[in-house]
Write a structure and sequence with these properties.
Helix content: over 70%
Shape: globular
Distance between the termini: 37 Å
Number of strands: 2
Order of helices and strands: HHHHHHHHHHHHEEHHHHHHHHHH
Strand content: under 5%
CATH architecture of the largest domain: Up-down Bundle
Family: Belongs to the major facilitator superfamily. Sugar transporter (TC 2.A.1.1) family.
Pfam family, one: Sugar_tr
CATH superfamily of the largest domain: MFS general substrate transporter like domains
Protein name: MFS general substrate transporter
Keywords: Membrane, Transmembrane, Transmembrane helix, Transport
Number of domains: 2
Mean pLDDT: 84
Subcellular location: Membrane
Length: 466
């Protein structure tokens, strides 16, 4: 029963990432729907459209720090349920909005709910996971983001094919979005326990012991499956010792107080920069106009390519999550960033050729390189985006570290989503030169400052790296 509950808890908490994935693909897919564009209003400016797309990031930015505070005070479990409930209500209301302003407001509320779920669900997943599972399960958390994005892309493709000019072509996919937070809230309430690390931090030692014995006493130790309450007791002792070293309340300024915490802060910041500025963002949120610039203007073709892109990205993300413990985090980061650099250079060249002479082969090559950019991004950046910040922080600053990381991700995302349509309209493919330069910087940062955490099952073990 304990093993079953543990595995169900993994699946339920991963829904938090999938709900984020649904929104990312949804807003990209909706832009290909004539009825959706009519609902926003004809002649809407690129700046206003960018603001609408950035709405979820704007809502998240405002609530990540309160979410971290709540996760440490009320618990990871309560915070996840609160965020999921807000997202559930906002998803239903969004499906029945009229006009650009109302749609923008619901996206801001979705972002607020997402701030609470993202700040609490990923730490909860890592903190209840057994040491044997933690790294792989932590990597799969964001890799399965694409369950949501694939669902959104193909639901929208279906409504476009059958209801192209009907308002339900865009309202139905918005309503389907509510399924993910509904499953998350119901699953957490019914199955997922509280983090034993949170329980220990509040002096609830016996509750923490019961959770660890129930979830981890059955283990695979290489010679078969056996029960060992002593094994769970060892975990409890390690958690208690780690928290006993520093019981003071953590301030964000404490990230500056020691070399180890400054190193953690450096990683937290650069992971956020890599997530948003490696060059994937334009294709994630503005695939339709990018495909249009390559000569693919049919909405059904655009929707089909978006659906295929999500499937391809999920395959590469799962591959990266599966091998993260075999080849290590650093090798995975460098493979991803190096592949993106080569692909973005090739995409820029193909786009330039298409703009100059309208070459059909150059346009098709551009689409292929967009798929390669997404594939290399998903290989490492998707699975490590949450796993790595959770790994390099301690319990004392984990919620704050992830909140700061996600605050920066959403802030940079809001900037990207507002600026990208303006930049794409103004300079088109040349915009990718910015990301090419940044990728060179990111590769250097990983080489010289990202530590290896492969093979360290317990989160407390990673603390020794710093």
């Amino acid at each position: 029963p304990g093993r079953l509950r543990l595995h169900l808890s993994y699946a339920i908490l991963i829904i938090a990432a999938s709900s984020n994935g649904y929104d990312g693909a949804l807003i990209s897919s909706l832009q290909a729907l004539p009825a959706f564009n009519d609902n926003l209003g004809q002649g809407i400016s690129s700046a206003y459209k960018g603001l609408i797309i950035a709405g979820i990031a704007l809502g998240g930015v405002a609530f990540f720090f309160p979410a971290a505070y709540l996760a440490d005070r009320a618990g990871r479990r309560f915070t996840t349920v609160l965020g999921g409930t807000v997202m559930l209500v906002a998803s239903v209301v969004q499906a029945f909005t009229h006009g650009a302003a109302a749609f923008l407001i619901t996206r801001i509320f979705l972002g607020a709910g997402l701030a609470f779920t993202q700040t609490s669900a990923a730490p909860l997943l890592n903190e209840i996971a057994s040491p044997q599972h933690r790294a792989v399960v932590g990597a799969f958390y964001n890799a399965l983001y694409f369950i949501g994005s694939i669902t959104a892309a193909w639901v929208t493709f279906g409504t476009l094919a059958s209801l192209r000019f009907n308002n339900w072509a865009w309202r139905a996919p918005c309503l389907v979005q509510a399924i993910f937070p509904l499953l998350l809230v119901a699953g957490v309430l019914a199955v997922v326990p509280e983090s034993p690390r949170f329980l220990v931090s509040k002096g609830r030692i016996e509750e923490a012991r019961r959770v660890l014995v129930h979830l981890h006493a059955e283990r695979h130790d290489g010679s078969g499956i056996g029960t060992s309450a002593a094994y769970a007791e060892e975990e409890l002792e390690a958690i208690t010792a780690s928290l006993a070293r520093d019981r003071s309340n953590f301030s964000y300024f404490d990230f500056l107080r020691s070399p180890a915490d400054r190193w953690r802060l450096w990683i937290i910041v650069f992971v956020a920069l890599i997530v948003q500025w490696a060059g994937q963002a334009p294709a994630s949120y503005y695939l339709s106009p990018i495909l249009g610039s390559l000569g693919i203007t049919d909405p059904l073709q655009q929707a089909g390519l978006n659906g295929g892109l999500q499937v391809w990205s999920m395959i590469t993300a799962i591959t990266g999550a599966a091998v993260t413990e075999r080849i290590g985090r650093r090798s995975l980061w460098l493979t991803s960033l190096g592949g993106m650099l080569a692909s973005e250079v090739a995409y820029t060249v193909s786009s330039a050729e298409f703009q100059q002479d309208g070459s059909h082969s150059a346009g098709l090559s551009g689409v292929v390189f967009l798929f390669l950019i997404s594939g290399f991004y998903s290989l490492a950046i998707t699975p490590l985006a949450f796993l790595y910040p959770v790994e390099v922080t301690t319990y004392r600053n984990r919620a704050q570290g992830l909140a700061l990381n996600q605050f920066l991700v959403f802030l940079l995302g809001a900037f990207n989503q507002f600026v990208n349509p303006i930049a794409l309209d103004a300079i088109g493919y040349k915009y990718y030169a910015v990301f090419i330069a940044l990728l060179v910087v990111f590769i250097g940062v990983v080489v010289f400052s990202f530590p290896e955490t492969r093979g360290m099952g317990e989160l407390e073990e990673i603390e020794r790296v710093f």
